[in-house]
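Structure first, sequence second, as always.
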């Protein structure tokens, strides 16, 4: 009974861990609350930095799952209780699973942009989030204003819900800068006459090919990057939006009217992980994301025997790093199972 490894969360972290475990001959059950696996990546259209279709990555992971992986969808884990020699997993539909080894891959939530009231999301229809924009792209729709017009000017706002003491999140969400650059290019590809103004604190192009994409956005697509923090959005009678900012390079206040605003929302700790880990007493960082046993040397282990972490449940991460982390978790699980009583 205890031989079966349970992975909670069938996003790309859970899928990558399952694929690697199944490949080395271990039985895995993935519990996913949505109707299909894939997590947030299922909602994205094209991925930075190459603009390849997100679907290609998901298809690859789906195909890699192997015969030893069972994915059960539409099932939400509500709590996990330690029992002698293992754990009992209670699902909200009443199903119960027992295991000696489990991986928490429950990911993250998006910052709720309504909490930045001054930006007008949920109040002004021409203020949308980066996740909304992905949906428009993924569904093959045209980017328009709420009145169905082609926007002539779009404002992109960085650090919404991240690096912001007022909302209690001082950490950087890592991937929203490059998401903003990617989305600016995509809008220009779709609407060649539309001007883009991107407001940032500083641009964090930390990974391979990110800086090149930023160069391309400026040189090939003429995206305007303005170093400045938005103080508020206000709506004109025609529903266009006035952005009130300060250009922090020149020190001058700046007012700009745009037809559409895209808020680059950050990662926040998944509410589900908090609920589940309450009963386990796992460690959380000051940012609220789960902490591994040791950030340098045991990045996928926890202090509890047989409990592992994979992916964005530990904080913001891109697809490449998340898949690598899922596979790293599989190695740690294998090592544990090899030496543990639960597998005997
Ligand atoms: C707007 C935006 C755009 C992005 N675009 C890109 C991009 O272009 N390229 C890139 O590299 N990265 C991108 N990212 C980052 C990417 O989304 C993450 O790397 C990825 O989603 C992390 O995967 P994960 O599996 O760790 O978490 P998630 O995607 O959050 O998956 C977690 C899974 O766990 C499930 N789950 C949660 N709780 C439970 C529970 N209690 N029971 C059962 N199941 C549960 C969820 O339903 C979900 O399927 C973007 C992020 C944002 C915010
Ligand atoms: S990645 Fe960029 S937009 Fe996102 S929080 Fe960090 S600095 Fe801000």
């Amino acid at each position: 009974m205890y031989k079966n490894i349970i992975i909670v969360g069938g996003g790309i972290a859970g899928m990558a861990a399952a694929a690697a475990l199944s490949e080395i001959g271990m039985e895995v059950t993935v519990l996913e609350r949505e109707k299909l696996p894939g997590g947030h990546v299922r909602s994205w259209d094209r991925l930075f930095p190459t603009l390849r279709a997100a679907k290609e990555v998901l298809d690859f992971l789906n195909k890699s799952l192997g015969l030893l992986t069972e994915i059960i969808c539409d099932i939400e884990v509500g709590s996990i209780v330690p029992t002698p020699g293992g754990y009992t997993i209670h699902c909200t539909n009443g199903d119960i699973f027992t295991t000696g080894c489990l991986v928490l891959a429950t990911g993250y939530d998006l910052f709720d942009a309504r909490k930045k009231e001054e930006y007008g999301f949920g109040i002004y229809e021409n203020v949308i989030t980066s996740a909304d924009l992905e949906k428009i792209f993924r569904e093959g729709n045209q980017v328009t204003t709420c009145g169905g017009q082609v926007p002539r000017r779009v404002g992109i706002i960085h650090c919404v819900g991240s690096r912001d003491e007022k909302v209690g999140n001082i950490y950087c969400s890592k991937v929203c800068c490059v998401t903003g650059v990617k989305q600016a290019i995509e809008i220009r590809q779709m609407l060649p006459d539309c001007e883009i103004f991107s407001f940032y604190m500083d641009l964090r192009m930390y990974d391979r090919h990110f800086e090149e994409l930023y160069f391309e956005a400026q040189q090939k697509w003429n995206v305007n990057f303005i170093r400045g923090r938005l103080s508020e959005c206000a709506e004109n009678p025609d529903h266009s939006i006035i952005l009130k900012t300060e250009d922090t390079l020149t020190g001058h206040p700046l007012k700009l009217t745009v037809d559409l605003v895209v808020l680059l929302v950050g990662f926040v700790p998944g509410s589900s992980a908090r609920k589940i880990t309450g009963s386990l007493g796992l460690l959380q960082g000051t940012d609220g994301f789960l902490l591994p046993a040791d950030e340098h040397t045991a990045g996928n282990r926890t202090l509890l025997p047989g409990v592992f972490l994979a992916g964005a449940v530990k904080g913001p991460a891109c697809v490449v790093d998340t898949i690598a982390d899922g596979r790293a978790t599989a190695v740690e699980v294998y090592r544990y199972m090899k030496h543990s009583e639960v597998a005997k």
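Margin note: The radius of gyration is 22 Å.
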